[in-house]
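Hi U.,

Before I forget, here's the chain from the pilot set. I'm dumping it here mostly so it's searchable later in email.
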Amino acid sequence: MMGFSCLLPPKVDSQLIRACIHIYACALVFETIYEERYPISHMGKYPLTMYQFKHFFNTCRIPHKECDELVSSFRTVSEDIQTPPTHIVIIRNGHLFTFNL
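Structure:
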């Protein structure tokens, strides 16, 4: 499996740089899905559903006794006129950090 090793060889104190690369890549994917520019995947000549991509972001699992519930507030640009979220939350050692993108 390819990871960040091909972009940045592992070494001591590279965790912050790797996290920044990952956040940047996720922001690009978010923007592409939000603007509905993500290319349609195909299996042979049949197009696959793109519905599951909406659950990559803004989704939370709510636990219940019998069965958990997935709640997603993600909306594409054609579904909602509100501006999308422009921040990320990082949880580290029990602390929450919010950053604007």
